[in-house]
Amino acid sequence: MCGIIGYIGKDQALPVLINGLRRMEYRGYDSAGVAVINDGTTAVTKRSGKIANLATALDTRPLTGHTGIGHTRWATHGAPTELNAHPHQAGHVTIVHNGIIENYVALKATLTAAGATFASDTDTEVLARLIESETKTHKSLEAAVLAALLQVEGTFGLVVLDDRHPDTVVAARRGSPLLLGLTPEATYIASDATAIIGYTDRVVYLDDDEIAVCRPGSYAVIDFEAKAKEHEEVEIKLELAAIEKSGYDHFLLKEIMEQPRTIADTLRGRLDLENGTSHLGGLNLPPDYYQTISRFLTVACGTAYYSGLLGKLFIERMTGLPVDVEVASEFRYRNPVVVTNTLGMVVSQSGETADTLASLREMKRRGISTLGLVNVVGSSVAREVDGGVYLHAGPEISVASTKAYTSQVLAQILVGLQIGRARSLSITEGKAIVQALQDLPAQVQSVLDQRDKIKAIAKKLAHLNSAMYLGRDTLFPVALEGALKLKECAYVHAEAYPAGELKHGPIALVDDNLLVVFLHPKTALYDKSQSSLEQIRARGGQLMIVGTEGDQSLTDFTDNVIYIPEANPYTLPLLANIPLQLFAYYVACERGTDVDQPRNLAKSVTVE
Questions:
Q1: Mean pLDDT computed over 479-499
Q2: Strand, helix or coil at 289?
Q3: 149, 309, 395, 531: which one has the fewest Cβ atoms less than 10 Å from its Cβ?
Q4: Is-contact 179 193, C-beta < 8 A?
């Protein structure tokens, strides 16, 4: 969470900083600030609220200079006030920081005893004071930063200025992403590659416990033993249009509507219809390994976790192997039973989620092979797993995940298909799955084409303040994800249950003030679910149904029916999810919430 941008070069720093912050606002939007060195003095401007507030202040009093840092905050320590906003200053030192300093209370007590005073409630100011104290005994800024960080417990993505060293910016990382963007005349520092698109396509990703010393057009990296480290420069392939709204009112709607293309991108070059299989060279698993796998273990958080619940049902059917799906924040703190020959799968859009990364490292510590299913090239998960699958969904700017969720499920299908065909999945079933995947983009487009109808239904139901989502089998994980989207985007209380559980408690909630979203397309359990619809109608529940094209019987229950195409069991749940994404979006618009940047949320959760 939080966004960091830094610049040192020949151009004015401020336009780079503000542009980078705007592109990363989805990472945090409680407050924002910038600091620029000019004529041996560091000037700081910061504001609570969104970056627009900061930009307005800077329009009146712009900061000039060629070296600067900026930050957009998601509050952890201290309320989201201007006083607690970054950057934080201590004497000549100014810093921005992502992460949490776990021993900040002890450090603060030591510094206070030595005469330091504090203006904010943040752990970051403690870090600034600590670095400033170390500059008194170390000649170089990087030596002072290293000496300070050796005393720190916790996580950090950190960028430091000292106005006595205007030709140097120091960055450091532990558990919070940082990259360097490189040109012959400038060096950029950012927590997200989106911040530097259009400035450079050459980047270096810092690893944990590394410090980068940045100067105009050059850099050097050392580890925490002050030893030089070599890094490979990587080319990032992102276009500016990918992080713009392209005529849509919100990024969320744009990203929902992009799914026919992003599905095709996820599948491109990976399907083999003739042999009814998939080809994923990035798995880095020898073919004979497939026969030795005893189970799968998937770890993820939030939407990615729900994708894992759906992927579990698919992979078990294709491979005949059990799949455990764990919430990463729970997995990392218990002592799970991990049997021999388990294959670990780590699912994350950003590849930087703190709990997911910690779970990955625990799996590796236990000696199991790991796969990463991630969207961001060069992310921490992507670099630490043994192999994996890039989602190729493109940048996802809206905080609520949509297209990445779809691609996460598809990636799990591709993994299951390749391993299943190497084990016992028949070529006939394999071909049917491949054909269904090839048909999916056009089918998704047919659902998206109904967005005006979905908007009208959302308008009718948006006043309801509580919702229950119901589905059976593979549609239960879809119900969970649909309920989450309504919570995230529209701030409507929503729960999800397997439809067969309705009579085991949840039916007590049903009355004319409850929205019930019933996933009821034609599946093997269609008849089993029919009685649940009858019970909801009898108790006055406000129904919205997702059904299969041609099933006119559903209109006997409600006019609020959204139809999806008849589809293969492996793709039908993804089709059923599309109306739920659009419904959440339009309910949010109707209720006037901040669609792309919902309150209290941020895109990449890099702290516990």
A1: 97
A2: helix
A3: 531
A4: yes
Asked if 61 and 192 sit in the same domain, the reply is yes
Residue 481 corresponds to which tokens in the numbers above? 């994800």
Find tokens 């995940």 and name the residue: 401
For helices 572-591 and 427-448, give the axis angle rounded to 10 degrees. 20
Based on the domain organization, do 390 and 294 belong to the same domain? Answer: yes
Residue 523, classed as helix, strand or coil, is coil
Give how many domains the chain has, as a whole number.
Answer: 3
Q: CA dihedral in degrees (499, 500, 503, 504; nearest 10)?
A: -110
The whole-angstrom separation of Cα 290 and Cα 275 is: 17
In the β-sheet with 88-90, what is the strand arrangement from edge to edge? 88-90, 93-98, 156-162, 169-174, 210-215, 218-223, 228-229
Under 8 Å between Cβ of 406 and 259: yes
Cβ-contact 522, 548 below 8 angstroms? yes
- Sheet with strand 493-498: strands edge to edge: 493-498, 466-471, 515-519, 542-548, 561-564
On whether both 401 and 495 belong to a single domain, the answer is no
d(CA 432, CA 435): 5
Average pLDDT over residues 359-380: 92
Domain boundary, last residue among 242, 261, 295: 242
pLDDT tens digits, residue range 50-80?
899 999 999 999 999 999 999 998 777 778 8
Average the pLDDT over each of 70-84, 132-146, 189-203, 535-549 and give the range with the smallest value: 70-84
- For residue 252, how many C-alpha atoms fall within 13 Å in the half-sphere facing its CB? 28
Between 608 and 358, residue with greater pLDDT: 358
Strands 515-519 and 466-471: parallel
Residue 475: CATH number of its domain: 3.40.50.10490
Say whether 320 sits in a helix, a strand or coil.
coil
pTM of the model: 0.85
Report the C-alpha gap between 328 and 347 in whole angstroms.
Answer: 10
User: Alpha-carbon distance 109 to 116, whole Å?
Assistant: 9
Mean pLDDT of 264-276: 96
d(CA 590, CA 433): 38
Distance CA 462, CA 172 (A): 46
Say if strands 41-48 and 561-564 run parallel, antiparallel, or are unpaired.
unpaired
Domain with 264 in it: 245-445
Residue 382: closest CA among 179, 554, 580: 179
- What's phi and psi for 446, nearest 5 deg? -65, -30
In a domain, 600, yes or no: no
> Are residues 361 and 394 located together in one domain of the fold?
yes
Roughly what angle, to the nearest 10 degrees, separates helices 403-423 and 572-591? 170
Asked whether residue 420 falls in the same domain as residue 460, the answer is no
Domain check: are 323 and 185 in the same one?
no
Question: Do 368 and 486 sit in the same domain of this protein?
Answer: no
Q: With beta carbons less than 8 A apart as the criterion, state whether 564 and 576 touch.
A: yes
Q: Which residue has the tokens 């990472």?
A: 27
CA 370/CA 343 separation, integer angstroms: 6
Average pLDDT over residues 554-559: 94
Residue ranges in 80-178 assigned as alpha helix (H): 104-113, 123-134, 141-149
How high is the mean pLDDT of the chain? 93
Q: Dig out the tokens for 137 from the structure.
A: 């005994």
Cα distance between residue 462 and residue 460, in whole Å:
6
Residue 24's pLDDT is: 84
Residue 602 lies in a domain: no
Dihedral, 416, 417, 423, 427 alpha carbons, nearest 10: 160
Catalogue the active-site residues.
2, 603
